[in-house]
Design a protein that fits this description.
- 48% of the residues lie in helices and 10% in strands.
- The protein has 706 residues and is α/β, with parallel strands linked by helices.
- Strands 2-5-10-11-12-13-14-15 form an 8-stranded parallel beta barrel, surrounded by 8 helices.
- It is globular.
Amino acid sequence: MAFLRLASRWPALSKFGVANPSLHGKSPPLRNGFLPLTTSSAVGKSASAAATTEAFRGGSSQAVGHAPGQRKDVLDSSFDDAHAAYKSKTTWEILRAYIVYTLCSSSYLVENNMKLMKIMKAVMGEKMFTALMKGTFYGHFVAGEDQERIRPTLERLRSFGVKPILDYSVEEDLSQEEAEKREVESSVSELGDEKVQDIFRRAWLKWSAQVLNSKKQSQLMSEWRGSKLCLVSAHEDPVHGLYMDGEDGHWKGGAGRSLVEGTMPQFHVDKTFADRRYKVSSARTYFYLNEATCERNLEIFQQSLQAVAGATYGTGLAAVKLTALGRPQLLLQLSEVIMRTRQYMAEITAKTAQANRSSPEDKGNIIGKHISPEQLHQKLQQTCKLSEAPVKKFLQNVTFDQEGLIHLFPWSGIIDENLELSETFLVPDIKSGKMVRLLTQLSSKEEEMFRNMIRRINVLAQTAEDLDVRMMVDAEQTYFQPAISRITLEFMRKYNSKKALIFNTYQCYLKDTFNEVVTDLEQAKRQNFYFGAKLVRGAYLEQERARAAALGYNDPTCPSFEATSESYHTTLTECLRRIKDLKSKGKPNMIGIMVASHNEDTVRYAIEKMKEIGISPEDKVLCFGQLLGMCDYITFPLGQSGYSAYKYIPYGPVNEVLPYLSRRAQENKGILKKIKKEKKLLLRELFFRISRGKFLYTPKGDYTPI
């Protein structure tokens, strides 16, 4: 993404320590106005020396192939150019960054950081502690206390070619006990947890099968009238058999309980992992208290959107988390429904293939099967003993186009018409032939809570549209993510009709990420809306692995760092391929991707693929993002060389962002290799300024991001 070059200021700035070729990194030359994506040290060194020597003498480092008045520096693809990385900082800020990174290298300080900060606050008092934090960790990682006080930081970033993603980073400092209590209480329906019911039911069936005959068993079960438990008749069909409705005591065909024996443990709360901060250092966590706190979070997110509009000239983004806007139980249940739907379609496909004595179709999401409603009707007739009326009613609600099914359920109705969840997710049961629920029953209060959550998201999306700014929905744990992604995609469909306002986030350490992205890209293509995605490696790796092992379900994560990198690169390549395809068809900008990574190799890979596929920064379809205070040697050279670059900007009062600062310290401890390089480049720039007598250097950027 190109940036204007205001050349008139350059001669005045060139005297303030522009890169010395003996001290700063390598830069490849430009060809036809764009970077040749070679990492050849000979070529890079030659171009870097020529450009920086000319600039140091007071001349222009104008990029070849660009008109006067535009500024675009040469990118050092080794990200070893200290001056490009830190010319946006004062010398004090460079010294402070070095001190902060040195402290982050201490295991003792990092492991006990929250405890030490609380002791310091008690000893020093509020005023002195706040001043100390602003001079160290807070000043380095946080932009300011509120929308007004962050403006100078945002304006300076903008002047050096970098745009912001705003995030109000206030977090509750909850104890583990309080966090667990809140999570357990807010993750279980007031009608009971199906997981608990299922454990009880299976134990009862095992015992009764051993000591009772079928008649006695049925007779005993008939005495459970009035109970809220849904128990399967063991002598009928223990997997898809009858159940007794605790409300009216009548036996019914599978309704009210899952189609598959047992529950999916990953979508049910477990006290061991109820504190979702466990083994997580790079993501903020919200714990549900009540609907009023969700309303306050809504107001905070709205203020962030307003700050983006007012302080960033509309070029920034605001980050939101859906767990801040509603009861987690609802996301858990909805996620389980989505996964059960996929199982259901796989079972329908397998049964149909068996009936036709053919090979089963490839597994995948519904949209990828290209099944027409008529074909689905035929499959259901082959596999289910159904009367015509319920089938017709079911088929009336499916979402499809000329290429076939898109969804089995009317998701647009959930977003636009506030349909009740309990009555929406009904499918024909393969065994019983009855219409059954994929979603466990919700109370009327829980239905209202879900509508409130959707309303809050809708308010934010409408605010983003009204202000013409973008909103990025963060990814969360895998037990929430199916629901988060589905809801986000539906709001994309609703609001991304003219441009990409709503972005979803995909975590590439998950094995299924590539398939999920391809499925969502296909939906965007077929329903004709703009697709926005942020690609990250992921924030919950250790927690996900530990939880899967403890609860006995398949580990959803890639087995190694290399496998995660391959997942990331494969997913990114597919996105770029589709971007190129749309561009050739006269539909540019229908897909927008953010490469949110602190990994140099991934950033280089993205740049190389852009060149290889034929996508330029000026196409405005791919951008890069890193956290404020981390990997400046990647972000700023990208922004100053014509790429769209972002910093994730946290803000909030000092005392209320201490948990955020604690996580930043822990995260930096985990990437000592990056810290080592950052410290090396900081020292290089510091010594350069001292040697040139520029210790009092004042940053004055003249880049204009688009």
